[in-house]
Recover the amino acids of this structure.
């Protein structure tokens, strides 16, 4: 099949990768048996079959949904509400900022594979999968797809995605929530290295009732740089220069600061009831995906 | 502590300069390595940028700086060659004289030459010199030859000793010792003479090498034309036995070259101290080079003490045929002389013209004038001498050489010749010249003032010899070819050029071939040998044998160790 992908993307999403995805799908079905369904309900209350709740009648409501039994017993007009069944929409937010190009393999490649894996699981469950790259704003996104057959479109899209620009999570997510009417599950795959802060952006998602799951991708060198001496530190995104004499003590301080940063993100996600998982690019991506499953946030 | 190569001021100046350079290098603005980071904010939290221009920052890597300072200091100290003061004494100078005479080529039973032994001792002596001592190697050949200057470098001295070779002739050891004494006046005890020869100057230190050995030598080997037999040559050889026992040897004389032709071979038995001397005669048609070689009786190489005198060389020059033109009356005796000599050829245009009772025609370059008259004489005459007896001959002139006295030569009548400046009177009667030789303006002539028929010269044995000599002198200047065999070490004068051959064999000089032999019985006599005196008995004059160790190797080693330490500190990132 001709996909028009570039050679490096062939390596990124090769046959082996596809086999791993299928393996993940099977494992997820076994591990989460009874929880998975081909169709999952959304929160929307509407014109479904299954009773959900009552509410007071207001003029204009359809008389057919008035619960006349309640009225007979309690002389009160209450309207019967039914849970409306709809497809789950999964939004995979992929950080495509310049900082994601760091590391070997790059965090961006790793994130793309994770996104591809999550997308495959979603497509296989007949969920509507959106892939939305972002940096300092939203980038061209993959329109909702459903069904396993769409996975190659996903590969093609991810393969063509390029990282660049500064990170601005708040701006990106604000744009996202404003242009997205259908709520759903949002999985944010990013390093969360945003000089403007990630808190407002994540809060926005929760505020707009998106189930949120944060996957923090880090390079091992970022956690333990292993550099020493008189250096000129250059921020890959902002170009900010900083002269530093990195001594072992400074290095220890940095590692502590990095750990603190990650811990703060995790605490914040817990606070806003968002799922969180942190990974290093040295970890096999399939293990990461299984961890995501075990968190129970992504697959219900 | 004494610094040999630097004064204290110099050392301090260089050290200060070196430290300034090191400090300046450390003050240089550091070129930082650029490292890309994902999130500078994190680094900003942990790094407080300190200004890189502060002095403290520049000397932050104090350890590295101190290592460099120590390295420079050690290096400068090494260059200064420090030494503990008590070990230091004034520089001493020694002269090592090595005899390079032919006898130093004599070998011992193990096949090592006396020169080898002398070199070993000299090398040992050099090894015992102190660090500040200087020595000169003097080669005692025909003349003293200093082969080094006063050197402190032992390697240079040993190399000079190694390269030293002996001559094939005697040496003037006394002159070399005198030369050495002039070099270090008042320090004769620091002159070491390595030789086989006996002591001549008790003030210097004699280190004698070698031991008495048996030797059989060719002590004479020469060739010359046979005087009475033109066209032949005589070969003289002498072999002497300097051994304490009888010697059975074989002398083989052959032509030199790629295809030698045997000329003579003589087995001989020589008693101790005995010798065999013989002359053999042979015909010669052309120039020939001869080589005599002494071998054992069975033809194997002679294993005596000195190989140098087992060979000798000579060469024989073929006599020259002289073309002669006779003008005037024929004389039977003269004709007999000319016709009987195979080396004289009559010719219409001869190179020598004999005017017999004839007036000279033209101006021949070489001529003999016999029986003059007053009008045709090429020389001035002053009357006639009658019934005269020759009472004086110029016996040293080539024309009269080997002629004898001719005291009773009777001349009935002769013109009284007038000798002019430059003329040589060959014969005279009561002071009146009757024969003379003249050489003027490139022309030569021999003048007989009398008619051959009016004297009894033609009846004399010397008559053919006089004519032969006269022809030879006219043609080449001498009747006897110059000796072509020489002794190594003797000075040869060839047409004003002086040359002293030092090697035996054939040499080409001024277009002429010469044979050079050792031919020195004193050298060949290896029995005349004073007892050897070896170096262990010697003491280096002055004081102790060594003046202590220098410290510079340790300083260099310490500097090298420092570089290793800095290398480790760099890789362990202690200094970066």
């Amino acid at each position: 099949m001709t996909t028009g992908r570039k050679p490096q993307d062939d390596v990124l999403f090769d046959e082996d990768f596809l086999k791993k995805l299928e393996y993940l799908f099977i494992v997820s079905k076994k591990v989460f048996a009874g929880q998975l369904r081909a169709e999952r309900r959304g929160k929307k209350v509407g014109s479904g079959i299954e009773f959900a709740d009552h509410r007071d009648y207001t003029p204009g409501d359809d008389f057919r949904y008035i619960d006349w039994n309640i009225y007979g017993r309690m002389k009160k007009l209450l309207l019967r509400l039914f849970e409306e069944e709809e497809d789950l929409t999964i939004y995979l937010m992929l950080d495509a900022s310049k900082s994601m190009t760091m590391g070997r393999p790059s965090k961006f490649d790793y994130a793309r594979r994770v996104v591809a894996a999550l997308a495959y699981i979603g497509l296989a469950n007949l969920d509507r999968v959106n892939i939305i790259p972002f940096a300092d704003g939203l980038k061209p996104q993959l329109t909702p797809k459903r069904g396993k057959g769409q996975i190659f479109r996903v590969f093609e899209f991810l393969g063509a995605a390029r990282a660049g620009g500064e990170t601005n999570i708040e701006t990106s997510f604000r744009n996202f929530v404003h242009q997205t009417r259908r709520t759903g599950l949002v999985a944010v795959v990013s390093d969360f290295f945003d000089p403007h802060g990630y808190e407002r952006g994540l809060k926005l998602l929760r505020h707009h009732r998106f189930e949120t799951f944060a996957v923090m991708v880090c390079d091992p060198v970022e956690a333990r740089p292993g550099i020493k001496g008189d250096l000129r530190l250059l921020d890959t995104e902002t170009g900010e220069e900083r002269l530093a004499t990195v001594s072992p003590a400074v290095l220890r301080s940095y590692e502590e600061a990095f750990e603190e940063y990650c811990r703060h993100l995790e605490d914040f996600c817990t606070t806003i009831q968002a799922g969180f998982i942190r990974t290093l690019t040295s970890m096999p991506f399939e293990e990461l995906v299984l961890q995501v499953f075990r968190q129970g946030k992504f697959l219900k | 502590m004494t610094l040999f190569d630097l004064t204290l001021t110099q050392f301090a100046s260089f050290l200060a300069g070196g430290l300034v350079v090191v400090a300046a290098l450390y003050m240089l603005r550091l070129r930082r390595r650029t490292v890309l980071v994902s999130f500078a904010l994190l680094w900003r939290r942990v790094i407080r940028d300190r200004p890189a221009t502060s002095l403290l920052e520049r000397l932050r890597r104090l350890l590295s700086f101190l290592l460099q300072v120590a390295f420079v200091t050690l290096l400068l100290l090494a260059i200064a060659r420090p030494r503990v003061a008590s070990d230091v004494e004034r520089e001493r100078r020694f002269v090592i004289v090595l005899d390079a005479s032919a006898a130093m080529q004599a070998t011992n039973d193990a096949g090592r030459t006396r020169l080898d032994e002398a070199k070993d001792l000299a090398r040992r002596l050099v090894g015992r010199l102190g660090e500040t001592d200087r020595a000169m190697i003097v080669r005692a050949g025909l003349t003293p030859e200093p082969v080094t200057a006063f050197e402190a470098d032992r390697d240079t001295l040993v190399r000079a000793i190694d390269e030293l070779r002996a001559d094939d002739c005697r040496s003037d050891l006394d002159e070399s010792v005198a030369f050495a004494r002039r070099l270090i006046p008042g320090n004769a005890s620091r002159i070491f003479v390595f030789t086989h020869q006996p002591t001549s100057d008790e003030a210097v230190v004699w280190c004698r090498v070698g031991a008495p050995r048996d030797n059989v030598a060719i002590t004479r080997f020469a060739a010359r034309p046979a005087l009475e037999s033109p066209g032949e040559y005589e070969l003289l050889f002498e072999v002497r036995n300097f051994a304490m026992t009888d010697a059975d040897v074989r002398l083989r004389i052959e032509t030199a070259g790629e295809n030698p032709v045997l000329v003579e071979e003589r087995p001989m038995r020589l008693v101790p101290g005995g010798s065999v001397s013989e002359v053999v005669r042979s015909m010669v048609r052309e120039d020939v080079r001869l080589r005599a070689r002494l071998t054992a009786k069975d033809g194997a190489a002679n294993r005596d003490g000195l190989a140098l005198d087992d060979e000798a060389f000579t060469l024989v020059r073929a006599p020259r045929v002289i073309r002669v033109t006779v003008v005037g009356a024929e004389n039977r005796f003269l004709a007999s002389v000319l016709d009987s000599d195979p080396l004289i050829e009559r010719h219409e245009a001869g190179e020598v013209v004999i005017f017999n009772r004839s007036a000279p025609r033209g101006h021949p370059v070489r001529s003999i004038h016999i029986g003059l008259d007053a009008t045709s004489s090429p020389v001035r005459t002053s009357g006639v001498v009658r019934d005269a007896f020759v009472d004086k001959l110029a016996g040293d002139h080539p024309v009269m050489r080997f002629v004898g006295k001719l005291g009773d030569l009777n001349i009935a009548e002769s013109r009284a010749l007038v000798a002019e400046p430059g003329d040589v009177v060959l014969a005279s009667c009561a002071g009146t010249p009757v024969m003379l030789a003249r050489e003027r303006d490139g022309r030569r002539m021999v003048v007989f003032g009398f008619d051959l028929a009016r004297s009894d010269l033609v009846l004399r044995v010397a008559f053919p010899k006089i004519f032969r000599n006269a022809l030879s002198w006219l043609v080449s200047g001498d009747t006897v070819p110059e000796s072509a065999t020489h002794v190594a070490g003797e000075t040869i004068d060839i047409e004003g050029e002086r040359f002293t051959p030092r090697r035996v064999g054939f040499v080409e000089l001024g277009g002429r071939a010469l044979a050079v032999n050792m031919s020195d019985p004193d050298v060949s006599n290896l029995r005349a040998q004073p007892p050897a005196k070896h170096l262990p008995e010697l003491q280096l004059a002055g004081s102790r044998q060594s003046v202590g160790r220098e410290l510079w190797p340790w300083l260099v080693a310490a500097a090298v160790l420092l570089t290793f330490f800095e290398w480790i500190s760099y890789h362990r990132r202690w200094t970066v």
Notes: Chain B has four domains: 2-88+551-571, 93-211+529-537, 216-319+520-524, 322-476. The two ends of chain B are 37 Å apart (CA to CA). The first strand of chain B starts at residue 2 and ends at 3. The CA atoms of residues 296 and 303 of chain B lie 8 Å apart.
